[in-house]
Structure formats: C-alpha cells, structure tokens
Amino acid sequence: MTTQGSLFGLSPNPHHLETSATIAISQEAKRRKAAGEDVIDLGAGEPDFPTPSIPADAGVRAIREGKTHYAANEGILELRAAAAQQLSLLSGGRPVNADHIVISNGSKQSLFNVCFSVFGPGDVVAIPAPAWVSYPQIVHLTRARPILVPGDPEWGLKLSVRDLQRVVPGAQGLILCSPCNPTGSVYTLAELKAIAQWARDHKAWVIADEIYRRIHYGPGPAPSFLDLPDDLLERVVIIYGVSKAYAMTGWRIGIALAPPKVAKAMAALQSHTTTGANHPAQWAAWWRSSASGASSSSAASARTSRASSSWTRWARSTSFSAWIRSAARAARTFARG
Ligand SMILES: Cc1ncc(COP(=O)(O)O)c(C=O)c1O
What we know:
Blueprint: H1 21-34, H2 53-64, H3 77-90, E1 101-104, H4 107-118, E2 124-129, H5 134-141, E3 145-150, H6 161-167, E4 173-177, H7 189-202, E5 205-209, E6 236-241, E7 254-257, H8 260-271, H9 279-286, H10 299-307, H11 310-316, H12 318-331
Helix pairs in contact: 2-9, 3-9, 3-10, 3-11, 4-5, 4-8
The site of pyridoxal-5'-phosphate has 14 residues, from helix 4.
C-alpha cells in the first residue's frame, strides 16, 4: 500500500498500532487521584517506592561531573561490563561478553530494537497469551505478524513446544516472558531448554524478556535461558533492565544481550533513532556504592567494574535481599505493567 492510498494519509507502518492500554489506565488513575478520588492504579507496573538513593545519587553525580554529552551508541562500557557481570552472577558465573550487550532507553526500546532487527514482513511471531500489551504492537511495527498462542490454563498459562508446533509450526520467532507479566508464571529450566531446542531446530528467534527475573518467589533468581549451554543460545536474545527490580522505571535503561550480529544491528538502529540511552541515567544504573568513592569513566575504571561491579556487590549484600523482598511486595500490586 502506498502512503498516498493509505488511511488518513498515514503510511502502513502504524496501521495496527494502538496506544498502550496500561499507560492509558495509569494516566486515568492519576487524573482521578488528582481529582481527590481514592484510586488503586493497576495500570503500568512499577514499584511504589522511590529509586534508592545510591543509584539516584550516582545519576545526580554523573550530571554534576558533566557526563551529559552523547555516549557510545551501544551504551557506556562500564555499564555493559557491570551488566555482563551481573547476568553472569545470576547464572552461576557463566561467561557473559559485555561486547554483546546493548543498552537502550528502557527494555521496551531493547525489545523494539531486537524485533526490528530480526523480524520483517511475512514473518510470524508467536506470543504466549495472555501477554504484555506491547509485544503484539512492537511486532506489528516490524510488519511481521504477531500470533497470540493461548497458554495452557492447566499449566500456569504457559506454552509448550507442542503448542508451538500445533499453532504456529512455521514461526520465525517467539517472545517469551518469564517470570511472566501478566500471568506470574515462571518457566522451569527444562521448559526453557525445550523451547531453546525448538528455536535452534526451527531456526526461529527467541526474545526472552527476563526483566522480572529478580522478582521471583522461589529460591534465587528465576531460571533463565542464560542457564543453558552456549550451543542452545545462538538464536536467543535476553532482555533485562533496571526498571522493575531497582525501582528505576523513569530512568529508562534497558539491557539486551544478543548474538554479535544482532547486537551490532541493534546498536546501529538506535544510532539513527535515539543515538543511545540517556547518558547520566546509564551511570545511575551502573552506580558505585558511596563507600567506593567517586565514579570515573576511564578505561581503568571499566576494568575495575568488570572485576568488582557495584551491581555484584549489591546483589550479594543483605540489604539488597531485603530490598528485593520489598520490591516483591510492591510487585504484588502490579497489574499489567
Ligand atoms: C514484561 C515487560 N517487559 C518490558 C517492560 C518495559 O520495561 P522498561 O521499558 O521500563 O525497561 C515492561 C514494563 O512494564 C514489562 O512489563
């Protein structure tokens, strides 16, 4: 369809696009609260407490130190190194290469970047339903076709390889959220492994949205595709971020770990859209504990952050566990974030 012949003069790009229902609900809740109504907002999902002072102060410090200019398109090395180290720590110390990490303005942008990089017209992308509202919209924007595949109500609304083979045998991709918003279900490692094998055998991409990995009621972090061996990860992109577990929704920092070619395409894509993620916010997400002194953008600092990142120290600290428990409490108030 040409732009000229299209509805209202719009190109076909946004034809299927609907405004985010969860954001609309939250705006309505805010409006009603401002009007004095007693409202519980079950719209956008975010912790109901402020960003802890350590990352908040790191963000302020970054601004004061002049870290306010353009940063590398793929994100600052220090944050990519710290994120690689934390993902490694969460998955039993497996190697994670910081060069395959791309930082974006929120994991929503990471999701868009990866979908736009690997899907296109004619592709079919499976999404277990019920699903977070943005997945089908993002897939529409790539001109691929999202297919909602109902999860099994007898099985925590999860999707099996059998379901994929039955409903979308030729799918080029799957967007899988675990722990899942909105169902809360958590895929076991065996289930993730079966899906990764399916993806490898079918040459399909798995976009693994693991943004809620730290908000998990079982022991330790929820199982991840990163707990699987490398040979099962050739077509898997992991999406992670600081919004939910660190109460940093407004800072807009998302993290993607992707095979090298995909990571390169994602960075190139955002070099022409947003240029990169908000620079001082990247330092807030990276933050150093106040005890370790001022931050530095030098290469030496990058090496230090690789060896002993603040994320790692925080992940190990007791206060972090207490903090995560309170984040989990807040998560109970989430609806469809
Ligand atoms: C499942 C899921 N993925 C991704 C996001 C996006 O998070 P952000 O862009 O704040 O990193 C959300 C936010 O509500 C979400 O619920």
